[in-house]
Amino acid sequence: MHFEGTFTVRASSTRVWSFFLSPQEFSSAIDDPHTIEVVDADHFRGTIKAGVAFIRGTFTWSATVKERVPPERAQMAVHGSGMGSAFDIVATLSVSESAGLTTVKWAADVQMSGTIATTGARLLQGTTEKKTNAFFENARKMLEVA
Predict the structure, then answer these.
(1) Cα(30)–Cα(35) distance, rounded to whole angstroms?
(2) Is residue 81 classed as helix, strand or coil in its secondary structure?
(3) What is the maximum span of the chain, computed from C-alpha positions, in angstroms?
(4) Fewest C-beta atoms under 10 Å: which of 11, 80, 86, 99?
């Protein structure tokens, strides 16, 4: 599945880029119960309680920052598993600033396997879009308060 979107925030591009590349900061925008541990500047891992339809549980995950070009773009790869399922995500972030507003373009390619992948593409896509939109709306609000 492929997801992408754009949003604009009243914050500098440096601040926005820093927020999304700081695991402790961006994790505060995640609604589902989770933990996060920073391994080093480019690696972190944790758990998240999430699910789709009747399949709910705790997933463990690890992430690697694959590319950093401050404050313009970044790419991250995430692998997770749990509840007889697995997921892989490659996410990209592009940041540009103009007249005091920063535009964030993001995209994510998601592959799921196991029990969670059998729930049906429409249900899976709808749930993922809902959670992704909530994450970016939370991030926008946090960045505009800061």
Answers:
(1) 10
(2) strand
(3) 48
(4) 99
DSSP 39-78: EETTEEEEEEEEEETTEEEEEEEEEEEEEEETTTEEEEEE
CATH 1.10.390.10 fits 2-145, yes or no: no
Q: Mind listing the pLDDT tens digit for each residue in 8-52?
A: 999 999 999 999 999 999 999 999 999 999 999 999 999 999 877
Residues whose CB is less than 8 angstroms from the CB of residue 98 and which lie 6 or more positions away in sequence, other chains included: none
Q: Which residue has the tokens 């598993």?
A: 81
Q: What is the pTM of this model?
A: 0.89
Return the residue matching tokens 């390619």.
109
Domains of the chain, by residue range, sit at 2-145
Strands in 43-52's sheet, in edge-to-edge order, are 2-9, 101-114, 85-98, 73-82, 55-69, 43-52, 34-40
Contact 56, 69 (CB under 8 A): no
Token pair 């992948």 is at which residue?
117
Whole-angstrom Cα distance, residue 131 to residue 11? 23
DSSP letter assigned to residue 96: E
Distance CA 116, CA 82 (A): 10
Say how far residue 102 (Cα) sits from the centre of its chain: 18
